[in-house]
Fold each of these.
Amino acid sequence: MKSFSIAAALLAATATAAPAAIKRQADFSPDGNYFPLSNGFPNPSPDQILKIQKQAFGTLPNGPPPPSISDDTKTSLKLIALNELFEVAFFTELLYNVTNKVHGYDIGYGHDYVLHALSAIIAQEELHALNANGALKNFGEEPIQPCKYTFPVTDFPAAIGLAATFTDVVLGTLQDVQFDAANNKDAGIVRSVGSVIGQEGEQEGFFRLILKKNPSALPFLTTSVRDFAFTAIQGFTIPGSCPNINTIPLQTFGALTVLTNPVEPKTQNLEFSISKSQLNSTKYDDFSVVYINQQNLPVVKAIQNPHWKHDTLVFEAGFPFDEFEMNGLTIAAVVEGKGPFATADDVAKVAKFGPGLIEIN
């Protein structure tokens, strides 16, 4: 399943971008098939794993797994594996482009440092994927296989901005993974997931510095839910290319595009769109926009000025930036109903479209 508007919304969330390159880089993976890599990933040999660990500056966890986990926690592991495979593909292409100074990726000063950092990030993401898929195999589940991918970036600043946005989504989603594991009494995975949250946070600080932003966005990072991440990842996959994504029992929402770009740090109306082809009917009277930001209660706003533009429903909703200091990542969703909602999970239960991803600061 593919939604280019989700990918476009992710890209639009980046506040800093160089002029578009002459063409999208296609030398590394012209058909979107990234795997297997030269190191054997996603199925490396034991010797190749040793080399990946050296590149990652650390090892796979070698302690015993818990004796059992719930089916819901297995779903979380499947989502983690799906996401890590996507990230390995993205960062591998980015490393290739910077290494070869593809048009738009000749970064000049700092070139060697960035190459060193990206090399470590790739290996660390490979270990994350191997750890999640290894746990699935241990519990009798089929490992998640990689898809074919396409990434809508043509220069280094846009690529880093996109990486920063999807890493923010990961940081929010892993909160949900820990919460669900705690509810399922699967304490055995919580510490490992927490260690990955820290690692992803270190990456995010690196991306934000490159974008000349505060290294830390918020005092309490925005939460998310697994369904939103599952939908967003599919925005970068080529339709029909994911061999066993159907084994992940999560919901895929319709695409919600944030048309306002950039989103300034002020109270304002934001403009959104939904494709008519994804609406079950032309009725939208009961739709609301919900914003999830930080650890605060979701904010519900009525849609305003809805109108059809060709085959697209365009509408606005208030964005109360000043009232809630809505910096960092905000996740927007369109729901049926007016709320209120106590949690992000409650929003996801009734969401029809999303996530629309908004980045400020």
Note: The chain has a mean pLDDT of 92.
Amino acid sequence: MPIIDSNGIKLYYEELGEASKPPLLLIMGITAPGSVWYDHAKEWSKEFRCILVDNRGVGKSDKPKGPYTTAQMADDCAGLLETLNLENVSVAGVSMGSTIALELAIRHPKLVKSLLLMCPWARCDNKAKAIFEHMMVCKARFRPEEFSHYIQLLIYAKASWDNEETVKELAEGREQDAIGENQQPLHGLEGQAYACINHNVYDKLASISQSTFIVGGEEDEFTPKWMSEEINAAMPNSEMYLYPKSGHIFHFENLEDFNKRALNWLLAH
């Protein structure tokens, strides 16, 4: 279980896939450790050396008091890639991870070969800021299973809630979160939330030359599709696909299709 020194903190990461394969850095979203990538990385590691990182503030990485910035977390990832002697790396980021990926491409362009941006945003509007502010309040006041329920309501689309099997699985997930080990501390969540609120790279998007695939859900209420559309319109070498009847967690709601679609794009770019 490797832990390295990067940008002033201890950063935890895991690898799936052979070291001889092309590298793929996977950056997870707010509240989530890198292990949440497993259902994707198990497939992608057949073709890539998948590097799963725990962002600062969560998992087994250090959790200093914030606020954090997405630029700071991008520098964390840059330190990891430099420690591994890697450059020209494919980078996938989901939600907050996509904002970190954008900053990585802006701040360390030689490290980034291509970008897979999942439910991304370049800047927050007032509603997005209010959601992150409310998330901090909920984390402070709710029991772990209640906070988990709140997050589920944010990220799953109506089609998932209408599926009784999915509803059962979500309930089981909340039960596990009630007793889970290594839960994210409040100050870790707050540090990440402030990074999300203050992220604004809209004016720099045109400078990102790497091939970019933007993927999201048509019914995402957390990071609505206008956010993806704004990035796609501003970046010179991007393309976009939005899954119908899908929310912020479209990549699990359409797991098999997304894994194949993303893998094919990554292999081609």
Note: Residues 198 and 210 are 24 Å apart (CA to CA).
Amino acid sequence: MCISNKMPALASLFSLLSLRGLLPPMALLLETVFILLFTFFTEYEDPAVMKNIAQTDLYTEFQDVNVMVILGFGFLATFLVRYGFSGSGFSLLVAALSVQWALLLDGFLFAFRHGKIRVGVRSLATANVCAASALISMGAVLGKTNPVQLMVMALLEVTGFMTHRWILHIFLSDHPTQDHPIQPIMLLHVFGAFFGLMVSWVLNRPGLEHRHEKDRTDRRTGLFATVGALFLWMFWPSFNSVLLDHEDKLTAVSSTYLSLATSTVASFLVSAVTSPRGKMNMIHIQNASLAGGVAVGVAISVADVPWVAMVIGLSAGLVSSLGFRYLKPHLQVVFKCHDTCGVLSVHGLPGILGWAFFILIRTLSPPNAQRGPSRLGNSPGQFSFILLVTLSLSLSLGALTGLLMKWSLWRAPQDRKCFDDQAYWEFQHLAERK
């Protein structure tokens, strides 16, 4: 009898020791490696170069992106009724880790000069944008993984996405340093979504095949998630324009705003029409209203007139809302892939839709209206090949990452402890009295 009473306590202690025994050493090891790499390979941007850049404007845009990554994605991940601490806290952990790794990889692959990486506001902004791809992937497995698994996933996802950027960067231009109107970095939505979906599919286990009792939301957590969606909505124009040349920024800001506005209206429309009782679903509004920013970001170089941006936003809002209403439930039942945050509907499908608009407009536009010579020419097949590369890399690397994350070494949470903060966080009101 005594032994049976001690079993739950021993199991709880083993779970605690597993987290304590894995998270601190891994975090310390990674930070030590990062500090050493920063010590030998980085330096701050030359002040003489900084004088020629409008640093005030660039810092403002960087902060806008930073707010999106930290506050926007963080609050948006708090929608689960018993996973608010983990949703926001693990988002901060993944973002902090991803930014450091992305800064180093971006420097080594694209800005390594004379043995050094120059760190400045622009490189920090680029790292933040790349870190968003890891947060998108995290959304597909939210609640079903522990922080150590998320750290492993973030490192591999950022590495894969940077490799994808480098491949497209070399492929797109006759000269690798030449600017091109195609922005491969904006394919982060497609890459991050399908990477995360493949990880979620590989990590699927019988205990999570049916809807988990804690995989739900309520009014309080829904309100916090709405705040996150509003932060993302407000600052998305900066996200799409921060890395563009000065003359293209204002057009990108205006196009993104118009696209977001039309996708928001579309999300309300579809949510009400498809509801059996004619009522709107706040989860649909939180997510589908952002689809316009995703789609127009992928097609930002061709969305240079207002009506085009609005058509892209309207289409993205419709596709995203319908995906949430009909596709997400079937994804789990038919394909055994549980997409916690609905990243397929928010980022994956709108990203593909934006690329389809890019192909269509780029193909139909006259040659003298196109910017930037490249090996691509004007063939839809060649543009489609870029999307195929993105999907192939994201799915294959996601599968490999999922297999690595399945190792028992990482001590994945038990089925009954998924979507629950108590497995990882201290709560004062639950403290034992002595």
Note: The first strand starts at residue 42 and ends at 44.
Amino acid sequence: MTKAILVSAPGGPEVLEWKDHPVGDPGPGEIRIRTAASGLNFIDVYYRSGLYPAPNGTPFVPGGEGAGTVVAVGDGVNDLAVGDRVAYVSGLGSYAQERLLPADRAVKVPDGIDLEVAAGAMLKGMTVEYLLLRTYPVKPGETILFHAAAGGVGSMAGRWAKSLGARVIGTVGSDEKAEMARGNGYDEVINYRSEDFVSRVRELTDGKGVDVVYDSVGKDTFPGSLDCLRPRGMWISFGQSSGNVEPFPLAILSQKGSLYMTRPTLFTYIASRDDLTGSANALFDVIARGILSIDINQRYALADARQAHEDLENRKTTGTTVLLP
């Protein structure tokens, strides 16, 4: 009998329960994976709390990314075999010792990349890929603002954006996190608890504003993010760690400089097999070339997922966190 974290009803971290969870044989087009590590991400909190409804209701196994070894394959699976090292991003299901997964949602992990690194890098790393390369393709000489610069996505974004030739400004909530962000490639770091980030961004850009703002914070950074943009700049809202942005009149975008905005999600950008493999390969490439160094700053036992969620929500974690079965 294998075990998993189960959520029987939405709520706080206390609803995360370590229970027996049988896993059957893979069906056609499926693989069975023995988990080496699961990634911890804020989207896991959204599903656990009910902000994002679980597609198939409760109970459900949370967790959106993981890596492990293929232990069985179903009929029709030709490009993966027992023993392959794979990683994946899925809506739910990674907080488990073993799991079933559609084979077309898994990618092979190249030799030389540790499975813990892959598990902690997939969701955040592919998020950085689509944000920097596809949602707003960053060009040399541009200036970007990335909120939560010491977080998992922000830590990767600083180094990757620098490799593209951008000037990178980040915001953080403490001096300790500011030092971490500087070590991750940020040219300028603003502690929003001690200085007004809008005024500081304007100062750093000689009043011009930045080309794009990447914002996973939400409520606490709105509408300040808009005020950091140059005319016709783009605000990319891809999360809401501080709460949802309240509804606002679209006219505010024209009033603040004919601005663009979008609310993307990784799952749209990796919906096709080609997009998934392209994004993963781009991520593995920058890891292999040393552009990204995935710092796993916290490791928890999978059975201790409740504590991991509490620490994540209380902003006690930095960089990448993995759960180990």
Note: The domain at 140-263 is CATH 3.40.50.720 (Rossmann fold).
